[in-house]
Specification:
Rossmann fold; binds uridine-5'-diphosphate; binds nicotinamide-adenine-dinucleotide; 311 residues; globular; 40% helix; two-stranded parallel ribbon
Length: 311
């Protein structure tokens, strides 16, 4: 199969490209390198099955492919709020361009949606039937509403044009190749702990997140793409829920760090709690995460230790 991965030079995309190449697939990695990096895919460039294409998904593209994973979109709040209008364009026009391509070449297409479609949820844990609690005019709206509209487009292309879609809603995922400066909590805390800088907790640290290790997530992607039972949406994430303060303490312990914890202002619209209900993923994909927070953090810390040494 020839598989297109948009956003393939990013954190999740590079792991997905690697996994698909290991399976013997041909991979076209499309990326505009906004938050992704050549370094993430440099080890794949010598593989004859791999091709890198620098392109912005806001512009249409013609390719011959059998299958598409649409991951192109900045994912960290700092990056998606840097140019919010561009974020909306990437999600919405990117979805239209990818769906148009899928329609033309009859490719199956999977959308990397997000737990952010649930906003600041008043249902806990979040099930796929929940419609969400999103502020449409807030700082996160460019990402949340962009991703919600992309889901709308996926289901309309499916109903109107019989495009063969899959939609997954990804909950906070971490691991090697996260951008060290992208402001996401796991990479921020690890980098701060390793450098001996203060650990910056936003708010009182009682807000919760559920952290999934990247290898587990990529396994979920592939299973979702390959099964015929559901088009989704299906939640993918690790149901083990932690407060941000618990995460900070765990990172400090695993890094043997003497960094101090400091408290800063909570950004607007920051969700108070988040935990995926993965009943559907278990039922349709036979999937659940196998890597717990402790061992996932150990692998991620080892990666950042090396990265900081080299820089
Ligand atoms: P990332 O920022 O590392 O990767 C996104 C990639 O998309 C980058 O390589 C970036 O350069 C590329 N990109 C951005 N705009 C583009 C454009 N206009 N045209 C072409 N390429 C473009 O983030 P990630 O964590 O790897 O996230 C990948 C996908 O998964 C995103 O769609 C994100 O919304 C989704 N997601 C991730 C998480 C998570 O916890 N990591 C959670 C929910 C959803
Ligand atoms: N957060 C924090 N300190 C940081 C970065 C993030 O306390 O240095 C908090 C943030 O306010 C949020 C949680 O950690 O409550 C997860 O943030 P992240 O940006 O990783 O993901 P998201 O909010 O999109 O789930």
């Amino acid at each position: 199969m020839r598989i297109l991965v948009t956003g393939g030079a990013g954190f999740l995309g590079s792991h997905l490209c690697e996994r698909l190449l290991k399976e013997g697939q041909e991979v076209i990695c499309l990326d505009n390198l906004f938050t992704g990096a050549r370094e993430n895919i440099s080890h794949l460039l010598s593989n004859p099955g791999f091709e890198f294409l620098r392109h912005d998904i806001v512009d249409p593209i013609k390719l011959e492919v059998d299958c598409i994973y649409n991951l192109a979109c900045p994912a960290s709040p700092i990056h998606y709020q840097y140019n919010p209008i561009k974020t909306v364009k990437t999600s919405v026009m990117g979805a239209i361009n990818c769906l148009g391509l899928a329609k033309r070449v009859k490719a199956r297409i999977m959308q990397a949606s997000t737990s952010e479609v649930y906003g600041d949820p008043d249902m806990h844990p979040q099930q796929e039937t929940y419609w969400g609690n999103v502020n449409p005019i807030g700082l996160r709206a460019c990402y949340d509403e962009g991703k919600r509209c992309a889901e709308t487009l996926f289901f309309d292309y499916h109903r109107e044009n019989s495009v063969d879609i899959r939609v997954v809603r990804i909950f906070n995922t971490y691991g090697p190749r996260m951008h060290p400066q992208d402001g996401r909590v796991v990479s921020n805390f690890i980098v701060q702990a390793l450098r001996g800088d203060d650990i910056t907790i936003y708010g009182d640290g009682r807000q919760t997140r559920s952290f999934c290790y990247v290898d587990d997530l990529v396994e979920g992607f592939v299973r979702m793409m390959e099964q015929e039972k559901t088009v989704g949406p299906v939640n993918l994430g690790n149901p083990d829920e932690f407060t941000i303060l618990e995460l900070a303490e765990k990172v400090l312990e695993l890094c043997s760090s003497r960094s101090r914890i400091t408290y800063m202002e909570l950004p607007g619209d920051d969700p108070k709690q988040r935990q995926p209900d993965i009943t559907l993923a278990r039922k349709y994909l036979g999937w659940e995460p196998v890597c717990n927070l402790q061992s996932g953090l150990q692998k991620t810390i080892a990666y950042f230790r090396e990265k900081l040494k080299a820089s």
